[in-house]
Amino acid sequence: MDAESRDKIQTLLDQHRIMTVATLRPDGWPQATTVGYVNDGLSLYFLCGLDSQKAANLARDDRVSLTIDHDAPQVMEITGLSMAARAQPVTDRAEAEKVLRMMPMKYPPQASMPFAMPTPEQVRIFRVVPSVISVLDYSKGFGHTDLVTF
């Protein structure tokens, strides 16, 4: 990956905090859900409930597809990322605690939080490592994408 592509991907990851992640249900249908995320370089992390459908799906098959984008006022300003990736559970307590400390920093100060951040035992934390990233940038032409593989 060249430096320009890496910088563009890093910038888009840093500018956003939610993504749509698709996992595979037992019946083969994809299940797309919106989750908050943090990133450490090109590795992304998200949380989900211990008994969630996402957690069950990922226990069977760690493949995910995801998108990160936002609504743009002008069509030719659309930018975003889509990825094919693997989502692995975070089992190292130090890494899990680091992710849980990073989550609130991704958001502006909140007026009030109805509950404390969960502990590593209360949630599933997944590390998402990209295999292929498609960088969408309409400013380079309608529907323009650059494909980056790892």
From TrEMBL:
InterPro entries listed in its UniProt record: F420H2_bilvrd_red/Heme_oxyg (IPR052019), Pyridox_Oxase_N (IPR011576), Split_barrel_FMN-bd (IPR012349)
Pfam families reported for this sequence: PNPOx_N (PF01243)
Domain Pyridoxamine 5'-phosphate oxidase N-terminal: 7-132
GO molecular function: coenzyme F420 binding; oxidoreductase activity, acting on the CH-CH group of donors
Extent of the signal sequence: none
Claim: Oxidoreductase is one of the keywords in the record: yes
Keyword hit for tRNA-binding: no
Domain of life: Bacteria
PANTHER family linked to this entry: HEME OXYGENASE HI_0854-RELATED
Protein name according to UniProt: Pyridoxamine 5'-phosphate oxidase
Taxon lineage: Bacteria, Pseudomonadati, Pseudomonadota, Alphaproteobacteria, Hyphomicrobiales
